[in-house]
Records
---
Amino acid sequence: MKKILALILALMMAFSCAAFADTLTMGTNAAFPPYEFYEEGDIVGIDAEIAAAICEILGCDLSIIDMDFDNLISAVSTGKIDFAMAGMTKTPEREENVNFSITYAIGVQSIIVPEGSPITSVDDLFAEGASYMIGVQQGTTGDIYCTDDFGEEHVSKFKTGADAVAALAAGKLDCVIIDNNPAKAFVEANEGLVLLDTDYSEEEYAIAIALENTALLENINNALATLIDNGTVESILAKYIPVEGNE
Ligand code: ARG
């Protein structure tokens, strides 16, 4: 009897937050609709909802902290936050510093231009003699790819994607390169901007967890797999991205 109780207890520990803490702290950068943004002072969106559903399965509370995107990985590895969920792309470089969960969504880098722009496709950016100023969010994959492809002198880096889009709307940039769903949201919110349907690069979004916290990685992966299997992730994605699928 005692043994069975001990086993049940051990199982409960392994599959609940009791193994870590009563509250899991998520770090994000909440200027990235529809994944994370402010609504009446609260951080809401796809990531906030999936994180809440994960915490419900794990039996713990969720607390969300907003920070600069390029501080998220170090906040995870130093233990300031338990995990980062920020429409964050799984990349080999980041995987040197954190573990990533299973993939829960797909993102594609897209180009935002002002109406009437000479840039009509990604090829125009690479064209012979092309010299454009591209806006990106600092530390994102868009930043990394553009800096690699076009050089520092052609890339203007902003704290948030929203800041980059504001600079574009003010005529200070030729285009902004950012993930497709935030791009759609920014274009809808700003008159005079157009989204080019050229896809620059396709990426997998996942949750970042400290390398040594393998128990949390396993728990989050189990919870996320359940939420993918039972359709919860799909319906959260569909709620925020009503049209063409879940990209
Ligand atoms: N997917 C891109 C990356 O991982 C951009 C993510 C930006 N996310 C945010 N919440 N601002 O680099």
---
Amino acid sequence: MERTFAIIKPDAVGRRLTGPIVGRIEQAGFTIQALRLVRLTKREAEGFYAVHRDKPFFGSLTDFMSSGPAVVMVLESPDAIAKWRALMGPTDPGKAAPGTLRREFGTSIERNATHGSDAPETAAYEIGYFFRGMELL
Ligand code: UDP
Ligand code: MG
């Protein structure tokens, strides 16, 4: 078993897509190990995306991620990190295959509906950024 960290981003939560996306997660066979609604401050969004701080999109991305509530989750399954990234599709919804969450629910390369960890080390860091040990099943 493996765990990954996922976010339903503020664009999707704001468009009332939390239920459909959680449904797709469960249909795909993930077990939800933790789940919470959060409203990130700009500073918290900057901390979460610190690896991107020198990118041209950093300011806009962190404004967006702190613009409204988001759902943070820990998902478990065999090969969860790669499996969740495959279900989301690539960063740009315009390049994502039919059936992927970003293709179905994303509206731009920034407002792409979901986040997923890209490696075991980032999954561990990102889970720890949002969840304490006692909140994890
Ligand atoms: N992003 C953006 N413009 C870009 C690339 C990325 O606004 O040109 C945003 C987008 O919301 C993306 C996030 O920054 O999900 C993190 O980028 P990353 O390259 O890590 O993509 P991801 O791992 O989310 O697919
Ligand atoms: Mg990434």
---
Amino acid sequence: MKKYLKDLLIMYLLLFFCSCQAEVKRPDVQIIPQPASMTNMEGTFSISSQTKILINSENPEMHKVTSYLCNRLENFYQIKSKVTFSGAAEKKSIFIKLNTGLAIPKEAYNLSVTPKGIILQASSASGLFYGIQSLLQLMPPIQQKLSEVVVPSVEIMDAPRFAWRGLHLDVGRHFMPKEFILKYLDYMAIHKFNTFHWHLTEDQGWRIEIKKYPKLTEVGSVRKETLVGHYGSKIYDGVQVGGFYTQEEVKEVVAYAADRFITVVPEIEMPGHSLGALAAYPELGCTGGPYDVATTWGVFDDVYCAGKEETYAFLQDVLAEVIPLFPGEYFHIGGDECPKTRWQKCPLCKQKMKDEGLKSEHELQSYFVQRMEKFLNENGKKLIGWDEILEGGLAPNAAVMSWRGEKGGIAAAKEHHFVVMTPGDFCYLDHYQADPKNEPLAIGGFLPLKKVYGYEPVPAELTEAESKYVLGAQGNVWTEYMKSPEQVEYMVYPRAAALAEVVWSPKSSRDFDNFKSRLGRLTKLYDILGITYCKTELK
Ligand code: ACM
Ligand code: ZN
């Protein structure tokens, strides 16, 4: 009897000990952007080098998805994985299933993590890629050799709210090296952004090689010095700077973006913000120059002459070289901040207005944009431009990027034109994000994290049918006061995380305090990746 009791006690202790061993702490789930639907469940799944990664499709896009997962497992945890083809899930595997018959939107995915394994399904490779991004956010935010990576059990059914989830970067005011552009894309992918708006030409520098017009980069990409301090300081640094991307580099960037399911939208500015080009080819301006690449910021009176046929021929040649480099559907032609001062005096501009029956310089700008639209449409692209392209009449198929508030976007949507919302008060990431007294010099404004998070891209003025024309929203990053990649990152993060949630997550799930409680995990990832970010609002 005594022996029986002793055995029972030993057995009980053993059982207790084993259950303690088996119980792995279930990590918290903190995904940004917040998935559309998520159920946390009991238990965990552990990924080790023994865990098979199975795919059901030989589609070449699958490689982008699996290599992203395998690289992260190896780089963060030193877990080497093998990908094999399989028609079905196996026990304790990660099954990545491209299911083109699945009735969910293109970028949507379903992710199931249970103690038995992981199943990720989507109707497209981009959906699978976003599922991988969420899965990676379930893993510990550490970079350390692990024998097992513990993932909490969860069921996620997720889909983005908007099709255009954009970040922009101005490389005209300050050129940013190609290596940084690749990093910028990497960081975008983590946040499920899918559109990179690359602002490639400016008064302060032309940044893309055009083979037919070599002076655009020989002359137009170099400025002799740069304003120091705030606009109007009249102090210059005396340091010549330049920089541009060769077409081969552009192809590399576009391919790198495509591997992360990001479309690159190029912007070639016209008819304003064109001093870089005019310095190289002064015959394209109304006065004939000479012009200098700008050394200060702002808006300049010298713009392309809209009266000369040579201007249209030049720009079409430029577009003809740029179009094939960018496979996306949209092409941005700028269109903002074009003073009409020179056009009002220019005999050729006045003659053009007379010949074409145009009643104002705004109509001349509209004529200019419509010619460009025709060329773009004939070459398989849709035109998008800043909201000034509404003035004088919108080109027939043009999409509008609304930056001077939402008025332009609302007007365009009411005319059944597609719209991307980037109003300055909510989406300009060059504005101060905290008390300017303690911040590096910025252009001005005040856009704290909470205000970005609170942005609603669909204005109440639009009917449900009109709101379908709002493609999404975008953060704009103008670099007058961002001289280095680190400064760009500092201005972009963590505000881009807030914007990512605005454009991805359901409106009903928006909750700033909850978002902030999830940011801690994401900023640990920023630390590992070496992303510079503003910590003021995280305290
Ligand atoms: C702009 O900020 N000028 C579009
Ligand atoms: Zn002119």
---
Amino acid sequence: MWKFGSRTHFVKELWSLDEGEEVSLQGWVYRRSELGGLLFLRLRDSTGAVQVVFKEGNLPKERVDEARKAGIESSIWVKGVVRRDPRAPGGVEVVARDFRLIGPSENYPIRPGAGEEFLLDNRHLHIRSTYMRNVLKVREVVISAVDRWFRENGFVRVEAPTFVGAAVEGGATLFEVPYFGRKAYLTQSSQFYLEALIFAFENVYTIQPSFRAEKSRTRRHLTEFWHAEAEMAWADLDGMMDVVESLITYVTHEVVDKASENLKALNRKFNPVEERFPRISYDEAVDIAQSKGVDISWGDDLGTEAERTISLEFDVPVFVHRYPKEAKAFYHKPDPNRGEVVLCADLLAPEGIGEIVGGGQRIEDLDELLGRIREEGLNPDDYQWYLDLRRYGSVPHSGFGLGVERLVRWITGIGHVRDAIAFPRTPTRLYP
Ligand code: NSS
């Protein structure tokens, strides 16, 4: 005897069952139609969707009537038998023998053709869509792969605070929060805390949100994004690029291994990348951008347009290293062979995506760091603990930050980083 509310199978398991086998399923109504006296409900669970056919005679009339009332996104329980039918999507359907409407849903607001803003206002519902579920599944595989790569390569996972007292990446994008009569900020990057933690663990990483008050409305900026950051004692710029290269290579292989169905459903043809990635200097990058007509002069940071242009020149990720000192934050170590540039590197993803990783070698000398803090007009008092790291056993060290949503955007081929996160935060979006 069946027990109401129990589930014997997930949808994805149906395809390996024999014709006539009895199953109980739970899920949501994904599509519905009626044809020639037959009711068809497509039931979706977390593993897939299957067509369920209701025919009077196979189950009591009141159960069929109950099923008729099940609107799109109602939650339902069905018992039935597996039937192979070439006319059913995927070649398998379930012939209903019993039914319960568990949570009704009437006039589900999301319909085909809904506009972008409407979908964002209804993100709490839209995450159920095939599109969002596929993108978010790729995201989950990406985050797990990043975590696994670090753990398997000798990094210790750590966490840093969200409330902080001073800027890492420049004051212009700081979110200010009242803090018991003082000002606090939301962290822009966990880098400085990771720099402190290398003295305990040498190689550390974290995966947590960073916040930027970016007013620019672009396809690659969120005000809250997930940041995978790493810091390594004794590593130089080349060592840092080697790590980024292995990490990204691994993640792309994992996604193709574990989420190929999701990429296919997104119509995305994506091939895993192989080490090594080209490494070009900022000077070369500016030459390329200028030769393609981008308005940029030596000394400017590479903007969206320059990055797009450069990344379109390569069909693999490319490192751009040694930017002018003025274009980068104060903590970057100047190149000893060429004082006007710093030992940093950004990784640009192909297809016009642009920067997905930023990092480099840090200044390890106390006086040099103090000098740079003063040069940038910052207050050394705000950075005393950070300066202490140079007072007590300083070491050469390097690290980087990877924007999770930007990486997911590239891998999935979606048009905007906001779809790479379930509940995006942008200057105009705080709901849902
Ligand atoms: O500003 S970064 O280039 N670098 C840092 O924050 C360093 N302190 C990281 C470190 O060395 N530990 O940001 C790093 C990455 C960047 O390449 C993007 O992929 C991502 O963080 N990022 C963003 N993603 C989405 N939205 C916004 N606003 C954003 N800003 C940076």
